Amino acid sequence: MKPIPIRRLRFLTALLSTLLLLAGPVFAYPLLTAAPAAASTDADKDEVSITLDEVTPWIDDKGTLTVRGKISNTTKKAIEKPSLSLQMSTRKLDSESRLSSWKQGQAQHRTVADLEHDGTEAREKAKKDKDDDSGDSSGTTLDTSFDDTIDPGATAEFTFRVPADDLDLSTSSPVSSWGPRGLAVQIGDDTGLRASALGFTTWYPDPEFDQTKISLLAPVTLPGHSEGGLIPSDRLDAAIAEGGSLDTIAKLLRHKELALAIDPRIIASFEAAIAEPPPADAPEETEEPGDEKGEETQSPPVGAPENDEADSSAAELEAAEDQRRRLDSWYQDFVGAAQKHTIVALPYGDPDLSALRGTKIDRLSTFAQKQREVVKDVFPDARTDIAWPVAGSATKNGLRALKKSGNSTAIVSDGQQPSITGIHDDAHSHTTITDDGESTIDTLISDSKLTDMSAEVIAEENPAGPLSELVAESAVIQSEAPYRTRSLFVPLPRAAASANWEQTVEELSSAPWIAPTGADEILDSPSEARGLLRTDSDAPHIRKKAVESLAETRANQEDFNSVFSDPDSADIRLDRELLTCTSAAWTLGRNANICADQARTQSEKLMDSLHLRKGSSVLLVTGEKTTIPVTIVNDSPAEATLRIRMRPATPQLRAQETETVKVPAAETMRVDVPVEGLANADVPTTIEMVTADEVTLPKHESLMVRVRADWENIGTAVVGLALAAVFVIGLVKTIARGRPKIPEQQLADAMARAKTDDPEKR
Description:
Elements: H1 6-45, E1 48-55, E2 58-59, E3 64-73, E4 79-80, E5 83-89, H2 96-104, E6 109-114, H3 115-118, H4 120-129, E7 141-144, E8 149-150, E9 155-163, H5 174-177, E10 179-189, E11 192-203, E12 212-220, H6 233-240, H7 245-252, E13 259-262, H8 264-273, H9 308-338, E14 343-345, H10 353-356, H11 363-370, H12 373-378, E15 386-387, H13 396-404, E16 409-413, E17 428-432, E18 440-446, H14 448-459, H15 464-480, E19 487-491, H16 499-510, E20 514-516, H17 519-524, H18 544-560, H19 567-579, H20 591-608, E21 610-613, E22 618-621, E23 625-634, E24 640-648, E25 653-655, E26 661-663, E27 667-677, E28 681-690, E29 701-708, H21 711-737, H22 744-756
Parallel strand pairs: 2-11, 12-13, 12-19, 12-20, 13-14, 15-16, 16-18, 22-29
Antiparallel strand pairs: 1-3, 3-9, 4-8, 5-6, 5-10, 7-9, 10-11, 17-18, 21-23, 23-27, 24-26, 24-28, 25-27, 28-29
């Protein structure tokens, strides 16, 4: 191999170096971009954050803007000489696009307060520097729980207070200057901005325009599976306790225009829980001979066990009675206060009716709607003609079915029946439910923007920021048409009430540009033309798997319920229980599947609660008619009516069905089954429980019946035959021996005399 010339080698080296230089940026770019990614990952674990605990949602010219919160330093380094400031947008955010832009990036803002000028040290210094009372009298303050450092892992608190006069907002032209302003709390240090948190406040210098009417609807329900479809007393007791969901509902009743959508399950559960318990039978007093009255109070013998069980039972009864009184008191107060509000009766369990339509348990939809009468029995003025499909799930067929079942109005979201003016229009409208457009149904249109934002506020752990945005959104809606009165409808989440419900209702109701209005007033107003009904193919529903599971559970238990003395009540308990798993609250997430599994388990438990106590094998005698005892155990909550049927596997045993018996709830009963043994055999036998409708219950038992001959009579006959045989044998032997033999000589002499003697002499 020839060596490469030096000149050529130098050329190749230079060429390679040039290529590497040109390719350098290509290889370096991924490295440069990879570093921030690693830093971002570290920042996710260790970062500085700001949480807002209070934001004044609106302020007039005499008010004070308050922004309060916490700074959390979860990094491993202290924040040295932090700078903390409150920024405000320089223009009003009077449209949804401007609100959104402010959230994306806080452009065009100014500082209204900061630590350098309004902190404690700055105020003290300014106070010392004042020569007289003519100095700066600004009322803006910033109070913090830290000085110059926020240590690693520490949480520091802050509070901004800015009087309206220090906000530099115009009061000369209220109509043009009023509206939402963006707020941003920012913290930084020598390295730059470390964290920020956003909020909003609405400047309201008392402009004169028409208010926007808003009607709020609060569902009164407690979603969740429960045996028999009734909420247990313990859960009701927890719900009415301070901070419980029903306690929150009771607090909301002070808002007079608030409408209530009441689940019949709440009413039925309270009625069952507060019912007076049946009087206990007095124990029978038995007195032994020789007992004296004074002996009843004598101390028990030394070492005798104390009567702890009796004391415990008495304490439990007393606790149960106290609970019943608490529930009764709350319920009566609730009914009295709710009478003053518009009441909408929900179907039982507030089910997703559209998910039931066309399924094997479609009839549950009809049953649930009929159960609205439970609410009307307590609230005679309750509306039982308003249907509430899950948002986005309304269809023409579904609305037509709802109208056919007695509903005159349906609650529909504006996503399905949009405004034709491009702004938030009146809630009362109507929509066609047939292709020819001849048939219509009234609709109550929910404002999806306010509804969704309310749900977000309620779900937030720290709702101050989102709540201020909700109020700002309502101000934006007002700004769309300030001189046109509109009526909006905002339903709260279809779930158990939580603490943030009270804040949400309070802030929306108290904003000065909002006029709280009852739902009846909206329905009585003229209807507004809206767009045609849109079908949402992605509307949330109870999943098909859960519905199929519930249908299977009902089919399995439907026949079983005929065993109860009151099968109609058993069917009601079953249907109510299944409806708890079709609640609209389960349309998001997989809770419906979990509930369906619980319903199936409970159904199986109920069907197992009525069973036979297994016995040992039985010995019978052929030809004898007798009975075999069978024990029925009824651990169910209702009386059962049934009879016992025995099925012998072979014909050597004959059995008859018993008479129909009634077994009380939580009791056992012994039943005698007539049988007759026909021939010797070991007969496997199946014992079944049969209802009056000839339905054989799934729980049965097997029994081995040993059929044998009548040994006592046979034994007597055998003994008699043995004695007879002994007698016959003796007789035969006696005959066989004959008479005693005569000696031969005597016999010969006798024969000779017989020949010679005179016959007359013989």
